[in-house]
Amino acid sequence: MRLLLIEDNLELANGLVHSLAQSSYVMDVVHTARAALIACATMSYQLVILDLGLPDMDGLNLLRRLRQQGMITPVLILTARDELQDRIHGLDAGGDDYLSKPFELGELEARIRALLRRGCPANPILSFGGINFDTLSRQATIDGMTLDLTARELAVLELLLQRPGRIVSKRQLMESIYENADDTNLTVIEVFVSRLRRKLEDAHAGVGIRALRGLGYRLEQSSHE
After folding, report:
1. Tens-place pLDDT, residues 163-190
2. Kind and range of the H or E element at 109?
3. Which residues contact 76 (CB under 8 A, 6 or more apart)?
């Protein structure tokens, strides 16, 4: 069970990691919004614990961005902002639960268990054509054979698999990988897509990535398969 903790207070973060490890939770920890965006683009988590007071971006803006990029992972907001309006803003931004600091570890663990029961996907496998992508192990296979993909290529493939037959823009792909996705960097996506397309073709996946000029890319069944 892998969780992501987004918390800039190093002492609190280390304490939570140590305490929750006793309950068999494996936790990745990041201290900035930028690092959180990269982590969520390259790894699949069963739960995200989010502090709102981050040094480089307000936590609510980060949460909105993650939801806009298609992240469906349950998010537990952990913050000192405990006014009713703060709770409303947090839930409206995409939070699934809200726990104010200071808190008791037992209550935190109870809320984690509740969110995991509610948010655990029935099937963590994304499939299309001959591709099977395990969002938990971050492994893509074709007819049981593992595809050798980089973390960036996996992130591109995952987003395309989440929207099979639908157009995914370069901007969406870029924002799923990088925080600072300015227009001058959008050409980088062409490199990732080209490499991924070649690997899918070499593996006879029965799936192609079609480029639509000015729009983006679409995952399609290969016509010759």
Report:
1. 888 888 888 888 767 655 555 477 888 9
2. helix 105-119
3. 47, 48, 49, 50, 95, 96, 97, 98, 99, 111, 112, 115
pTM: 0.57
Nearest to 171 by CA among 214, 140, 209, 200: 214
Residues 101-136: tens digit of each pLDDT? 888 999 999 999 988 887 655 457 888 888 999 877
Burial class (CB within 10 angstroms; exposed 0-12, middle 13-18, buried 19+) of 155? buried
Peptide bond preceding 121 in cis form (omega within 30 of 0): no
* 125-221 CATH, one of 3.10.105.10, 1.20.58.480, 1.10.10.10, 3.40.50.1970: 1.10.10.10
Structural tokens at position 199? 């690997």
The full set of domain ranges for the chain reads 2-119, 125-221
Q: Which two tokens stand for residue 92?
A: 């409206």
pLDDT tens digits for range 29-47? 999 999 999 988 878 788 9
Q: CA dihedral defined by 201, 39, 63, 54, rounded to 10 degrees? A: -150
